Amino acid sequence: MNSIPANRRFWNRISSAYQHEHDPHIGAAPRLWGMYSIPDAHLHALGDVTGKRVLELGCGAGQWSRALAAEGATVVGLDLSEAQLAAAASAMGAARYPLVQGAAEQLPFAADSFDVVFCDFGGLSWAPPHLAVPQAARVLRPGGRLVFNVASPWFEACYDEAAARVTTTLQQDYFGLDTIAEDDGATSYQLTYGDWVRVLRGAGLVIDDLIEPRPERGTPNGYNETEPPDWAHRWPSELLWVTHKP
Ligand SMILES: C[S@@+](CC[C@H](N)C(=O)[O-])C[C@H]1O[C@@H](n2cnc3c(N)ncnc32)[C@H](O)[C@@H]1O
């Protein structure tokens, strides 16, 4: 399925409201992962990128990219939405980096172009992983790393659409979550644990770690209500994959 046109329209439409609501916590400090803004310094997922060629897949307003550029990485921020890219351009710091409009499932870069490809609820949540993961693997140099954070299947399976919150009851089938219908005909993607392993290994990547970020009790979720409020302290809400190309 081709979700590029609808996802682009969706993100163009919501970009301004999304940044108004979320930029204050996404950009509150450098390198914050996920819905609970957990610092990379606690999770040790991305590590040192000084001097590395880094691609952010679905960079949004570039909160991550501008932090890595300031640390001395050679960063490219890619996003599907021109509105999101405009937000990234206007929020760029002193360390400038290029922004590219494109789709994670059709990357416009030569093979072996990057040392690190990463995203935080970016292109690997919004493009079909069976297309986007091989693209990420293709543009990595041997030894390069693909690191990305997505929602966990637990979180999705317990999401109650009618109540608009994550619950302690299984609401949807785990098998066949695959595509999630978002507003305006947009689509996000979710795989089972087994399918993630097969897609990553099928693209020739080695899985180094699967970090399950665990917020402290009382850490707010900037995106979704959960019941109980400490849901993500008790069950895994996110999957932070750490892989490399051998
Ligand atoms: C939730 S944001 C992630 C950016 C940032 N980490 C954040 O949390 O705001 C998702 C981003 O993915 C982008 N996106 C959607 N579909 C995409 C695709 N197929 N390829 C690349 N980026 C895509 C959207 O435009 C949006 O900027």
Draw up the topology in text:
Layout: H1 4-26, E1 32-33, E2 38-39, H2 40-43, E3 53-57, H3 63-70, E4 74-79, H4 82-90, E5 99-101, E6 114-120, H5 123-126, H6 129-139, E7 140-151, H7 153-157, E8 159-160, E9 165-166, E10 179-181, E11 187-189, H8 193-202, E12 206-211, E13 225-226, H9 231-234, E14 238-244
Parallel strand pairs: 3-4, 3-6, 4-5, 6-7, 9-13
Antiparallel strand pairs: 1-2, 7-14, 8-9, 10-11, 12-14
Helix pairs in contact: 1-4, 6-8
The structure holds S-adenosylmethionine.
S-adenosylmethionine (SAM) binds at residues 4, 7, 11, 22, 26, 57-58, 60, 64, 79-81, 84, 103-105, 120-123, 126-127.
Salient structural properties:
7-stranded mixed β-sheet, 14 strands, 246 residues, binds S-adenosylmethionine
Order of helices and strands: HEEHEHEHEEHHEHEEEEHEEHE
What is the H level of CATH, i.e. the homologous superfamily? Vaccinia Virus protein VP39
CATH architectural arrangement: 3-Layer(aba) Sandwich
The count of β-strands is: 14
**Helix content, binned percent:** 25-40%
Poorly predicted sequence stretches spanning 5 or more consecutive residues: none
Structural description of this entry:
This protein has 246 residues and is α/β, with parallel strands linked by helices. It is 32% helix and 25% strand. α1 (4-26) packs parallel to α4 (82-90) and α6 runs parallel beside α8 (193-202). The chain is built from nine helices and 14 strands. It has helices at 4-26, 40-43, 63-70, 82-90, 123-126, 129-139, 153-157, 193-202, 231-234; strands spanning 32-33, 38-39, 53-57, 74-79, 99-101, 114-120, 140-151, 159-160, 165-166, 179-181, 187-189, 206-211, 225-226, 238-244. The strands form four sheets. The protein has a seven-stranded mixed β-sheet with strand order 5-4-3-6-7-14-12, sandwiched between helices. Strands 8-9-13 form a three-stranded mixed β-sheet. The chain has a two-stranded antiparallel ribbon with strand order 1-2. It has a single domain (4-244), classed as Rossmann fold (3-Layer(aba) Sandwich), CATH 3.40.50. A hairpin with a 4-residue loop joins β8 (159-160) and β9 (165-166). The mean pLDDT is 97. The two termini are 30 Å apart. The longest helix has 23 residues, at 4-26.
